[in-house]
Amino acid sequence: EPEVTQTPSHQVTQMGQEVILRCVPISNHLYFYWYRQILGQKVEFLVSFYNNEISEKSEIFDDQFSVERPDGSNFTLKIRSTKLEDSAMYFCASSDRGPRHTNTGELFFGEGSRLTVL
Amino acid sequence: RKEVEQDPGPFNVPEGATVAFNCTYSNSASQSFFWYRQDCRKEPKLLMSVYSSGNEDGRFTAQLNRASQYISLLIRDSKLSDSATYLCVVNTPRGYNKLIFGAGTRLAVHP
Asked: What is the percent of chain A where pLDDT is above 70?
């Protein structure tokens, strides 16, 4: 069964360091997302990406964050200068359907990358 | 008011019990509704979509009341494997599948 894969599964970094989280979405999917979940809290939307550009982003996704699809398979999230409050599980997700379709919403999530900022 | 509000948990039930979860959402223009399941420290996985007429998938029944902006999930004949956090999820009226997650309701099924 096709799946979304994420690396690394866990990264520990010092405050102020740059971090890149990597994702390989399902191959025929066109819509890509990053969500995050701080321990014990709800899953929060960060950004959506379609046709090589950001479609939508949340207030969390400030200038310290960026996304890129450098080739045909990878989708990355970069945090330029990490803060303690960036510690969270970061989930990549993909879907094959966009907002014009009914029954949208089945996002396929990767297993997540746990980021710990010290 | 929170965008998506759920019953506070945890729900501790014996095997075989029937349990119901409730959820309300604030944006009346939302169009798509879902229940996701999340196991401890794992990724969310779609359990079922919620349709206006209500829908059933085996032991799971989902209902939607647009007038009240209310969604429910009923689990019959609970199994130990149903133990998880159940996330009520709503899309935004515009946007590329931007999903808004509730905080989740934790279910613990015991023997």
From this structure: 93
- For B97, the closest of A41, A42, A98 (CB atoms) is A98
Identity of the residue in B44, B97, B104 whose CB atom sits nearest the CB atom of A109? B44
Whether the Cβ atoms of residue A91 and residue A109 lie closer than 8 Å to each other: yes
Q: Is B43 exposed, middle or buried (0-12, 13-18, 19+ CB in 10 A)?
A: buried
CA-nearest of A12, A7, A6 to A87 is A12
CA distance B74 to chain A (A): 20
Q: Measuring CA to CA, which residue among A15, A19, A13, A17 is closest to residue A77?
A: A19
Question: pLDDT (tens digit, 9 = 90+) per residue, B36-86?
Answer: 999 998 999 999 999 888 899 999 999 999 999 999 999 999 999 999 999
Whole-angstrom distance, CA of residue A18 vs CA of residue A65: 10
Residue B29 tokens, joined: 């223009």
